[in-house]
Design goal:
nucleotide-binding, lyase, seven-stranded parallel β-sheet
Length: about 500
């Protein structure tokens, strides 16, 4: 498990442990961990200068401890500190760290230096910030973002909400770090929404705190281990019926491509048989993937196989009627795109969805999630974890709230944040591909939660594989994903990218 904790949970752990230690011991551990991280990053570099930013709270104390350790390390590090003391008295621990930095003959500056240091260490505010950066801190952060100097953030980049991944304040700003060293435990906000861009690569320093001090995690990071029990080699004595049927209900006039992308993704991720139940007359076959079958959506029996409803479905009376008929049924169901919009606009469809007992996965983007909850997309993005949990509980379904750091939530509150994927997925049709993978894994017998976890991780990893091959992220197309999905899935099952 790769646990994620809320700020409240981290503070509770900190208080429990601090009561068992000498005053300032945890700050000293954090300062040493930060110094060790800096030394590792500077290894082999000719430029050995470090600028540490220390704010008025304990995060600033961590930075001051790190400065004292670096100055006394005998490693030839040129250590400078900008200390923004603020108007309130520093804690006893931070005052002690300040004294140690002075005793170590650290240079204290009043402004950013003219020449770029090898590394800037951000110890301005950490998890303690409750309002948008302002004053001298904001000016400094904006200047550093413009300069683009390398930044290591201590615990949380200053200006970022550690619980939600949102930059604090409606007009807020956060210091963009290439790396973040999270203390005690990993934070939710480092891995979703704006947090992924602001925090960079995240490493955790537990500060030698024993596991028994930690509560159950608020969430966790997605990884293949969470769905590994479903990754089984196929028996030689198999046939196409062994791996399920997937029907994509969509493809209204002018939107057949969405249903095609979903169908191809289902096919390439292993479904035995795939068909498109088109709402409007369209192509009788897919010239790229002739294995895909086509049926008249108006007469298709919606109780057969696994249904993926929504890609290119439109908002017609027929689409509404098909949803109304499918929701009470026993077929496993993936709802995406237009199906979610229709449900968001209909109290009757919402009741039918909430009453389902068959496996159900919803894959909304933030605007679709907002319609399901009756709020704005801005409110969804301000707390993605809470929004995904609210939808899962309201509709008794597994929810994939798409976006940077997609959130997979189950009824009851269990939540996972995905970190695979890249900006290449911010293009038309990639959500249709994800829906197809979800449907395919459901059809192959995966439980709904594992199907969602696996689909999201594989989808993102496929995009990462394409980028590593020079395909994207700019210009990466949804139609390029299915073959990469196939390669990733086979690699997971067989240990090698077969049939890629």
């Amino acid at each position: 498990m790769k646990p994620l904790y809320s700020v409240a949970q981290i503070r509770a752990v900190e208080q429990l442990v601090a009561a068992t230690l000498e005053p300032g011991a945890l700050m000293q551990r954090a300062g040493q961990a930060a110094a060790n991280g800096v030394l590792a990053l500077l290894a082999g570099q000719a430029n050995r200068s470090v600028l540490l930013l220390a704010g008025p709270g304990n995060n600033g104390g961590d930075a001051l401890e790190a400065a004292a350790n670096l100055a006394g390390a005998g490693a030839g590090i040129d250590v400078a500190v900008i200390y923004l003391a603020g108007s309130a008295l520093a804690s006893a621990e931070t005052a002690q760290a300040l004294g140690r930095a002075h005793d170590a003959q650290v240079r204290f500056l009043d402004a950013l230096p003219d020449s770029a240091p090898a590394l800037v260490v951000d110890g301005l505010f950490g998890i303690g910030l409750a309002r948008a950066l302002d004053g001298a801190a904001r000016v400094m952060v904006e200047a550093l973002n413009a300069l683009g100097w390398p930044v290591l953030a201590l615990d949380v980049p200053s200006g970022l909400d550690a619980d939600t991944g949102a930059i604090v304040g409606p007009d807020g700003v956060a210091l963009r770090a290439g790396r973040t060293l999270a203390f005690i435990g990993n934070k939710i906000g480092l891995h979703t929404f704006e947090g992924r861009d602001v925090a960079g690569e995240v490493e955790v320093a537990s500060l030698a705190i024993d596991a028994h001090y930690f509560p159950p995690a608020s969430a966790e990071l997605n990884q293949a281990a969470l769905f590994a029990n479903q990754l089984k080699p196929r028996a030689n004595n198999s046939h196409k019926g062994s791996f399920g049927d997937v029907a994509i209900v969509g493809g209204a006039r002018g939107m057949a491509g969405a249903a095609m992308l979903t169908a191809r993704a289902a096919l390439y991720s292993g479904a035995g048989r795939v068909l498109v139940a088109a709402l409007d007359p369209g192509p009788a076959f897919d010239s790229v993937q002739p294995e895909i079958m086509f049926r008249d959506g108006a007469t298709y029996p919606l109780g057969v196989g696994t249904l993926v409803m929504g890609p290119g479905m439109g908002g017609s009376a027929l689409a509404m009627d098909m949803l109304a008929r499918a929701l009470p049924g026993a077929a496993a169901l993936v709802l995406d795109a237009d199906a979610l919009n229709l449900i968001g606009a209909s109290v009757d469809l919402q009741k039918r969805l909430g009453a389902r007992t068959a496996p159900t996965i919803l894959t909304p983007h933030p605007l679709e999630a907002a319609r399901l909850l009756g709020i704005s997309s801005l409110e969804v993005q301000r707390d993605r974890l809470a929004a995904a949990r609210a939808i899962a509980n309201r509709f008794n379904a597994i929810v994939v709230l798409k976006g940077s750091g997609s959130v997979i939530a189950a009824p009851g509150g269990a939540a996972v944040i995905n970190t695979s994927g890249n900006p290449g997925l911010a293009s038309a049709g990639t959500g249709d591909v994800l829906a197809g993978i979800c449907g395919s894994l459901l059809a192959q017998g995966w439980p709904a939660r594992e199907a969602a976890l696996g689909a999201v991780w594989i989808h993102g990893t496929a995009a990462d594989r394409l980028v590593s091959q020079g395909i994207g992220p700019i210009g990466l197309c949804a139609s390029e994903l299915p073959q990469a999905v196939r390669a990733v899935l086979n690699e997971l099952v067989y240990g090698t990218a077969k049939n890629g």
